[in-house]
Amino acid sequence: MNTPWTDSVDRRAPLPEYPRPQMVRERWMSLNGEWEYAFSDSKVIPEKFDGAITVPFSPETFLSGVGRKLEAGRYLWYRRALTLPEEFRGRRLILHFGAVDQTADVWINGEHLASHVGGYLPFEADIKAAPGDGRLSVVVRVTDDTDGGFHTRGKQKTKRGGIWYTPQSGIWQSVWLEAVPRSFIRALRITPFFDDAEVDITADVVGAERACAHFGGQSYELPARIPVPDFEAWSPEHPKLYDFTVSCGEDEVKSYFAMRKFSVDRDAAGVPRLFLNNEPYFHNGVLDQGYWPDGLYTAPTDEALCRDILAAKESGFNMLRKHIKVEPLRWYYHCDRLGMLVWQDMPCGGGRYSPAVVAAPLVTGVHLRDNAYGVFGRGDEAGRMEFQNELIDMVNHLYNCPCIAMWVIFNEGWGQFDAKKMTDAVRFVDNTRTIDQASGWHDQGTGDVKSEHVYFRPYRFRADRKGRAVVLSEFGGYAHAVEGHCWGGKSFGYKKLESGERLAASLEELYQKQIRPAKERGLAAAVYTQLSDVEDEINGLLTYDRAVVKTDPARMRAIVEIK
User: Fold this and answer.
1) Containing H/E element for 189?
2) E strands in 207-271
3) pLDDT, averaged across the chain
4) How is the chain split among helix, strand and coil, in percent rounded to 5?
5) Measured between alpha carbons, how far is 299 from 297 in angstroms, rounded to an integer?
6) pTM
7) Is the pLDDT confidence value at 563 over 80?
8) Which of 205, 289, 334, 471 fits a 20 to 30 Å CA distance from 411?
9) What is the pLDDT of residues 469-491, one digit of tens each?
10) Cβ distance 272 to 469 under 8 Å?
């Protein structure tokens, strides 16, 4: 199934945009495009490769040009030879991988330089001195057991169907090289202090040089609290971004920040609400899975990535819940500049999920204590530790993105454990955002919100006994199949409607009779399921191929408008 952008993908140079908008360097080169690939049963690099693959599309996808699955226990190999431009030769190089699913090893000119576990977060290989002749050979080895172990896997499943999707593997985000001097900026950490009209900027520097930030015609040696007088507050209605640069000796990066504040407080009537910039603000959201029929995890183009956000905004939503996936940094940049709040889910992992734990509570409402590790598929201590480390890495990776309003740690008991401990761990590294510790069920009484999923009964608001804000973090899921725009023969949804008109009318009734009254009583947020169809799921506002908007955006805005 194609999307409107499938045929416009340049297989020689796909997704050519700079991948990291908050740390832009001028001296860089994209390695997206044609690589060699091979599948093998051996850890040793094969003598012969199978053919060409278009990176960064997984081999399971149409856009990769391969269309082949990486089986558990086998190896996927990538190889690319390149000649560096003159200005890169003899310099220190950083080879960046946006994300590789699930484990990766990297060799440069035969030297092993990097290993990484986890399919959702970036890593890099440090080439301390590029060869004088400018020739580089990059080899990557990948393994992926999908749901055969405890690694994070999101909604991928070996036996896909229903709410579980086709597994993918390998390189699925951009690969790029940067040439840096002896002293260089490895990372930035940006924290707006809204009430003080200041922004705190720190730099992680490699080498002996000191870093300086340049903003508003002034320079500040880092770390520094920088005044932002008379600032314009960022919001979905006014997504104001401020540009600045950081220099470190010969190194310089361009970045941006926004002045905004997220919190939970009580409104004038004493009701706990989500607040934006010290005012109550209703998060009117839609669930966003981020899957594509032609690229699975990878959008075909940057325009396609952006178009999903605009579609949600045009339909009246001010928030996207990024569901069980971490997107490329450009997606968050588009949310920052267009004005879209984001609730960021941590991808799930662990062992096999018991239906009694992850499905039955939707009907029974029973909540279990999550220190029963075996019951939740978390009996392996190494898996629990890996999840915690990856959770903190995700928070640090996305910390600077102004759009992210909430961290969602667990969803519907999928590999859940020690939610209070995980909440404390996230709060330790980021106390500027709100936290949903258990979306759906198995609430452990911690975090900033009481988070509920309701599909099979009318929603009626009930205040949280612990005084947290109450959010309806999933509801709806109304399904309508658009002929000629469905992925397969099977279909899944929580209420099936035969026409677009019936879908729109049912949505009007849903918001009018359930969501608006709940908001008046104290509901702080609502997340409709979902933005687009995904494989068997036909409960999207858009078809899976993004070719059809099922309900006119103007009508949808009127339906979901909640003041």
Assistant:
1) strand 184-193
2) 211-215, 218-221, 224-227, 242-248, 251-257, 262-266
3) 97
4) 20, 35, 50
5) 7
6) 0.97
7) no
8) 334
9) 999 999 999 999 999 999 988 89
10) yes
Residue 490: per-residue pLDDT: 87
* DSSP structure string for 3-53: -TTGGG--TTS-S-S-S-TTSB-SSEEE--EEEEEEEESSSSPPSS--EEE
Q: Counting Cβ atoms within 10 Å, is residue 217 exposed (0-12), middle (13-18) or buried (19+)?
A: exposed
Token pair belonging to 172 = 């699925």
Q: Is 494 left (phi over 0), alpha (psi -120 to 50) or beta?
A: alpha
Residue indicated by tokens 């941006």: 256
Q: CB of 348 within 8 A of CB of 324?
A: yes
487: three-class secondary structure by DSSP: coil
Mean pLDDT of 89-117: 96
**Following DSSP, what letter does each residue of 82-118 receive, concatenated?**
EE--GGGTTSEEEEEES-EESEEEEEETTEEEEEEE-
Mean pLDDT on 93-106: 98
- Provide the β-strand partners of residue 275: 263, 280
Domains and CATH numbers, the chain: 6-180 (2.60.120.260), 184-249 (no CATH), 262-560 (3.20.20.80)
In the block, tokens 């998060």 appear at 283
According to DSSP, residue 151 is labeled S
Cβ–Cβ < 8 Å for 201, 246: yes
DSSP per-residue string spanning 399-449: TT-TTEEEEE--BTTTT---HHHHHHHHHHH--SSEEESSBBS---S-SSE
Here the tokens at position 413 are 């008991």
- The CA-CA-CA angle for residues 199, 201, 206, to 5°, reads 175
Nearest to 91 by CA among 24, 175, 28, 182: 182
